[in-house]
Amino acid sequence: MEYRQLKEIEIYPLRDLSYDFLGIHFENPFILAAAPSTDNLTMVHRAFEMGWAGAILKTTSVEGTRVDLAYPMMSTFDHEGRKLFGMGNIDLISEHHIDTVEYNVRMLKKEFPEKMVAASIMAGRKEDWQSLVERLEKAGADLIECSFSCPQGNIGEDPGKMLAQSVSATELTARWVKEAAKKIPVSIKITPHVTDIVEVARAVKRSGCDALTASNSIQALMGIDIRSFAPYPSLGGKSTYSGMTGPAIKPITLRTIAEIARNVDIPILGTGGASTWSDAVEFMAVGAGVVEFCTVVMHYGFRVIDDLKSGMSHYLDEMKFSSPAAIVGKALPNIVMHDDLPRRTVRSHINEKLCIACDLCYIACRDGGHMAIDQQPSRVPDVDRERCVGCGLCQHVCPVDGCIEMQVAV
Ligand SMILES: Cc1cc2nc3c(=O)[nH]c(=O)nc-3n(C[C@H](O)[C@H](O)[C@H](O)COP(=O)(O)O)c2cc1C
After folding, report:
1. Bridge-partner residues for 155, per DSSP?
2. d(C-alpha 259, C-alpha 279), whole Å
3. Is the pTM of the predicted complex or chain greater than 0.85?
4. Is 279 in the pocket of ligand 1 (CB under 6 A)?
5. Which of 84, 103, 132, 210 is placed for a possible disulfide with 121 were both Cys, Cβ 3.0 to 4.6 Å?
6. Closest ligand 1 atom number to CA of residue 273
7. Which residue's CA is minimally distant from atom 5 of ligand 1?
8. pLDDT in the model for residue 141
9. CB of 245 closer than 6 angstroms to any ligand 1 atom
10. Which of 232, 237, 235, 234 is nearest to 220 (CA)?
11. pLDDT bucket at 1, cuts 50 / 70 / 90
């Protein structure tokens, strides 16, 4: 057997990715979201050494708070062979109370003064919210993120209802938190599970809090075993709704961030479905100032930071942007209401040179479009320009990039 020397993979030369956001200096726009990866000092330490710009330590609470975890807590939404297209968890907040997290913040700031060290908090009573803020500020945290959106959370006696699902409770609690923070910025982590995300964002803005983290996981039922009828993740045949994260929720997060950014003037930390540097660019283009990552790290490890930094460096050079901050909001002017969309006549055009005659466009158009694609003896399909309305379905089922384009009809 012949062994060949693997060529060293070329990594695009890194450039300066640093900028300021919320009055904090970020080495790059990539930070770790509150999750198992940030619940352990050694792990965050390793992530910082590998190049992550910051971390939100997993949500903590006051001493004495009961955190009653149930295992197994993970399940996945695998799609057409892709593992963890969505990931479900029934995790709760950290089992480490504020005393441990205070210590972790101190240690991390001592060793990595240039990194952004934030902590996430959750409480019920005003005095507990405020004491968490005060203690973390004293410990040296750069930012506090308040979880108003744990999918397993509840407001008082209302099980399953998240704080951020009530506009009035959001505003009141956010005021308590902001009142206690002397200098550091506070971000409220919200849920997309509301009728009007803008109302929630306005409530946070009115409270005086500095930012929003948009947005937490999506409540989901991850699947059912069709023989035992046990839902996933099955705990002796029983389960509950999961918080779904990962690539499957990215479009929901993009819409949430965009809708806030178009209507409320408040800085946004983006989270929910970002896995790559280009996902981060998309999050920033609709208004996120920095991007938090969780599922991709749980799947592939902290090392994904290398790709994130190198991809972002290449992109900024290509686009001639001076800093990641230049991306923020770039796509917002292009998001309009349906009434304001340009009305043009477009038609499908199939590039015969690229067509592999798989018939997917023909079948999709025949059974889901306008019966405008005909099969040819050569098997390269032909678009009937009279029947084609330009819906775009064929372009999206085509497996060959660039083979089908929607062209403006003249
Ligand atoms: C296992 C697990 C535990 C999590 N725990 C917390 C938490 O304690 N507090 C919190 O605010 N978010 C928590 N999250 C949500 C993440 O911070 C993040 O917002 C979410 O996973 C979406 O980002 P992603 O698609 O990059 O994973 C958790 C997510 C996972 C997967």
Report:
1. 158
2. 17
3. yes
4. no
5. 132
6. 25
7. 35
8. 98
9. yes
10. 232
11. very low
All domains in the chain, ordered by first residue: 19-334 (3.20.20.70), 342-408 (3.30.70.20)
**358 classed as catalytic:** no
Decide: 216 in ligand 1 pocket, CB within 6 A.
yes
The C-alpha atoms of residue 120 and residue 245 are separated, in whole angstroms, by 18
Query: pLDDT tens digits for 62-119?
Result: 999 999 999 999 999 998 889 999 999 999 999 999 999 999 999 999 999 999 999 9
pLDDT at 152: 78
Average pLDDT value over all residues in the chain: 95
Structure tokens at 95: 């089992």
Q: Is the pLDDT of residue 313 over 90?
A: yes
Query: Model confidence at 373, in pLDDT bands (50, 70, 90)?
Result: very high
Check whether 404 has a pLDDT greater than 90. yes
Active-site entry in 146, 150, 365, 388:
150
Residue 352's pLDDT is 92
Return the amino acid letter for 298: M
Pocket flag, ligand 1, residue 35 (CB < 6 Å):
yes
Which residue from 28, 50, 11, 42 is spatially nearest to 301, judged by alpha carbons?
50
* Residues β-bridged to residue 219: 243
Give the ligand 1 atom nearest the CA of 292. Answer: 26
